[in-house]
Amino acid sequence: MQLDIFEHGHEVMLRNDIVDALQRHDALAARAACDRLADEYPGDDVLSTARALLDTLEQTHCCSLHDHSALKHARQLVDAMHPLADRLFGAQAATRWLAPLWERLALGAQALAFRADSAEDHAAPLWLRAGNWTAAVQAIDAIESWRRVPAPLAWMTEARLRLFGLQQTWPLIAELGWLSPARLDELLRRSEEPLLVALVRKFGQNFEGEGNAGDAAWFAAWALIEQPNIAEHASAAQASQQTIPERAFRTLVELLGLERQGRQRDIVERRKTLRDLHPSLYAAYMKTR
C-alpha cells in the first residue's frame, strides 16, 4: 500500500501541536489540539496518552495544598503523570517536563511541618524531584534533628551529593547506612556519580553480606578498604547508635591512622577487633596488606 505523504504529514503536524502545547503546560491549547486530532484521526495512538496526561495535569491545577492529606493527593497525581510523560516525550524530556510541577508542589508545601508518618509529604523531597538541590537543603535544615531521622538524612545526603560531590558527602553516606541501610541502598542504586557507581558495583560483587539492602550498613566501612584516601572526609561522620557496622568503620579509620604512624603493636590489636566484628570485612582488609 502506497503511503499518502500529505495525509500522513498532516497527522504528524496535529500530533506535534498536542505535544508542543503540553510541553508548555498549556492545558487549553492542548485540549483544542487533541480535539482537532480526534476529529480527523480518531484512532490515533497519541490521543489516549495525551488525554490522560492532560486530564491529570488539569486536576493538579485545582489542588489546594492546605494540609498533608491534600499534598499527598497532589503528589500522587504528579507521580501518575510520569509514565504518561515518558511515553509522550521520552524519559529525559519527561523529567524536565515534570520539574515545574514538582516545584509548584514544593512551594505550596513550605508551610507544612515534617511528619514522620507522612515523610514524603514535605517540601524537601519535592524540591529534590524538581532538581532544586539548594532549596531542598534549606527545607531539610528547618527540620529539627534532621541528622537523626532517616528520611531527611537521606534527602540531605542526596542533595549534598548533587551540590558538593562525593568526597564531602561521605560522612552523611556513612551515617545513613548506620541509621537506615534500606534508604542508603535505594539512594546508591539511583546515583549517577561515576566513582560511587563503580564502588557500588564492586561492593555488590565482592562484599560477603546477607545479599539484601541491610548490607548497605557496611558500605562506608568497605569503601575505606577500597579507597583509603576517603578516610580524611568520611571520618567526620557523627556518632550514631554504635552498631557493629559503625564500630567496624571506626576501627578501620583508626587502623589507617595507625598504619601511617607505623604503630605495629596497636595495629595488631585493632586488626583483632575488626576480625571479631566482621571476619569477611577483615579478610578484605588483609588482602590489601
Keywords:
disordered N terminus; 0% strand; 16 helices; 3 domains
Structure description:
The protein is an all-alpha fold and 289 residues long. The protein is built from 16 helices and no strands. It has 3 domains: 62 residues, no CATH class; 80 residues, no CATH class; 137 residues, no CATH class. Helix 5 runs antiparallel to helix 6, helix 7 packs antiparallel against helix 8 and helix 9 crosses helix 10.
Shape estimate: elongated
Helix content: over 70%
Strand content: under 5%
- The assigned structural class equals mainly alpha
Looking at how many chains there are and whether they match, the oligomeric state comes to single chain
Radius of gyration: 25 Å
Mean pLDDT: 93
Order of helices and strands: HHHHHHHHHHHHHHHH
- The tally of structural domains comes to 3
> What ranges have pLDDT less than 50 throughout 5 or more consecutive residues?
1-7
User: How many strands, which pairing sense, and closed or not: the largest β-sheet?
Assistant: none
Total number of strands: 0
The first-to-last residue Cα distance is 72 Å
Helical segment tally?
Answer: 16
In short:
The protein has 289 residues and is mainly alpha-helical.
